Structures are given as C-alpha cells and as structure tokens.
Amino acid sequence: MILPIVAYGHPILRTISKDITPDYPALQNLIADMWETMYHSNGVGLAAPQINKDIRLFVVDSAQIIANLDKEEKEEFPNDEGVKEVFINAHIQTLEGEDWAYNEGCLSIPKIREDVFRPEEVTIEYVDENFLPKTRTFNGITARVILHEYDHIEGKLFIDHIKPLKRKLLKRKLDDISRGKIRVDYRMMFSK
Predict the structure, then answer these.
(1) What is the overall mean pLDDT for the chain?
(2) Catalytic residue positions, numbered
(3) For the purposes of burial, counting CB atoms within 10 Å of the CB of 79, is it exposed (0-12), middle (13-18) or buried (19 or more)?
(4) What's the predicted TM-score (pTM) here?
(5) Within a 13 Å sphere around the CA of 166, how many CA atoms are in the beta-carbon half?
(6) Does residue 124 sit within a domain?
(7) Residue 192 above 70 pLDDT?
(8) Cα of 41 vs its chain's centroid, Å
C-alpha cells in the first residue's frame, strides 16, 4: 500500500524515534509498504517518521543510484556498490573521513535541493527485517543516503546541515510546503 509522505512542518519530523521489538504490529507489512511508497515517490530512502511513525526504521536502496552513474562517476566511488537494505533500531558507531558535498533532496521537503556536507564513511549497528543484528561500514553515496535517513529517526532534516543564511532564503518555500501549497506526484500529509 502506498502511504502518504509527511510534509515539512509536521511535528513528527522533529521527533526522536524509539527502538522497536520483533513483535511490533504488522512490521513486515509496514516494511513492504515503505518500499512501495519509496519507489512510487522516486525516492532512494524512506524513514518511518516520513510516514508518520516515530520508530527507528528506515529503508535504503542506493544500488539504483550506483547503477545509474556513468563510468567517470563510478570511479569517484570505487568501494560503493550500493545496497538495498532495511535498517531497524539503527545507531551510529563511528563517522570517518573527510566531509564532502553532495546535492540532497527529501521527499518530505519536495522541490528543494541543497549541497550538504557529510562524512565519507559511517559504521552503523542495526537489525535487519528479521531482527538479525548487524554492524556494517558504508561509504560514498550509500553512506550519505544512510546518514540522511538516520537524521530522520533523530528528528533532523537535511536543511539543518546548510548555512543559516541559505535556510533563511528558503523560508518562503518551506512555509509553502508546510501549508500544503505544493504539487507533487505522490500523496502528502500536512500538519494541521
């Protein structure tokens, strides 16, 4: 089932999410709905707060980004093959490498893209959809997508990483999004 995406301005996007247990109600259905919603919205990641759930769950498919890079771009990320993965109860262990800029966008903040600096590498501890524990290190674009989605479960947004002046210049667009004055190809949920 395709779920509505929570729009900028909704308080859940600023809530720190809670860990869940394997008996979370209809978890496998929720995960399937998140994948379907993400692909329908042309996203590469989706976090539970973006579908109005305050739980530490996000899905990432960076493999589709890597697959669409040209040869030169792929050479920039030689150790990044991309992943399609479910992250539950994720907690960052370490951040390594130089911060680098990449133009990010967000399904909850449509039609706004900005360069965001993030570290090259993240080591993260989580459980998968079967609640099998994992600790993995990701780099390149995959690390960036994971860090973007991880921000969501920490109540942060990509615009929090841009300079205050730039954010001030975006205020009118952000206000329009929070008021529902935006058209997108997917269903959105606005705060009342």
Answers:
(1) 96
(2) 149
(3) exposed
(4) 0.96
(5) 11
(6) yes
(7) no
(8) 13
